[in-house]
Amino acid sequence: MLATVDRTEALRLLKIEHEAVLELINTLTDDEMTRPDTIRYGLYPDQRLAFKDLLAHLICYEVYTIEAINDWKIKAQHWVIDGIVEDGRKIHYGGIADRAHLTIAEQIEEVKQVYTTLEGVLATLTDDEWRDKAFFPTQKPMDLGGMIERIVVAPPRPLYRHLPVHIPDTDAYIADLRH
Fold first, then answer.
1. Is 101 helix (H, G, I), strand (E, B) or coil?
2. What string of pLDDT tens digits covers the 179 residues of the chain?
3. How far is CA 16 from CA 77, 88, 99, in A?
4. CA–CA separation, 110 vs 95, rounded Å?
5. What is the Cα–Cα distance from 35 to 33, expressed in whole angstroms?
6. Alpha-carbon distances of 58 from 21, 46, 73, 76, 110, rounded to whole Å
């Protein structure tokens, strides 16, 4: 796919996402973030996730995006480019399972590091790099920005917004936790 927004707009939208997640982290207590079965939307029927699990899920896509951008720069195709479609369920569950051992403090630290890294990587890309065409065969035209969208913005997510898929109304979510 080709990028649907330019790099500047993608970074602006991504920062909105990051600020929303960080605001929730700063609002919730450790108990609220680790309480199981509090995420109600955008999950598979067998999942009973805490906010901590959701953090792991959200950032796994951003970690893969960073890896895929780095691979793109050295003309290597990261597996997630095709895996996002073929192995979406595996990625969904895997990001959570891979981080299950982390404490809430460790998970929050990883979130902050990944956010800083991805924003930094996007900020340093040039507009020409953003529109750089895929060097590998694709069914439809793809550029670097489109590859990034394919991973970070996989449907049904709004453009560069993943949190609202799982917590559409943060005020209602917080109120539900605290009632």
1. coil
2. 899 999 999 999 999 999 999 999 999 999 999 999 999 887 677 788 999 999 999 999 999 999 999 999 999 999 999 887 777 778 888 999 999 999 999 999 999 999 999 999 999 999 999 999 999 999 899 999 999 999 997 766 788 898 998 999 999 999 999 99
3. 29, 24, 24
4. 13
5. 6
6. 10, 18, 24, 24, 11
Q: How far is CA 112 from the centre of its chain?
A: 12
Closest residue by Cα to residue 165 from 39, 1, 7: 39
Token pair 């449907």 is found at 155
The candidate with the shortest Cα–Cα distance to 16, out of 155, 152, 108, is 152
* Helical residues (DSSP H) of 28-103, grouped into ranges: 30-34, 51-73, 80-86, 88-97
For residue 63 the two structure tokens come to 């970690």
Q: Residues, the chain, total?
A: 179
Residue owning tokens 């959570």: 96
Cα→Cα distances 141→61, 65, 134, 138, Å: 22, 19, 8, 6
Domains along the sequence of the chain with CATH? 7-178 (1.20.120.450)
**Whole-structure pTM value:** 0.93
Report how far residue 63's alpha carbon sits from residue 20's, in angstroms, rounded to the nearest whole number: 18
8 A C-beta contact, residue 6 and residue 148: no
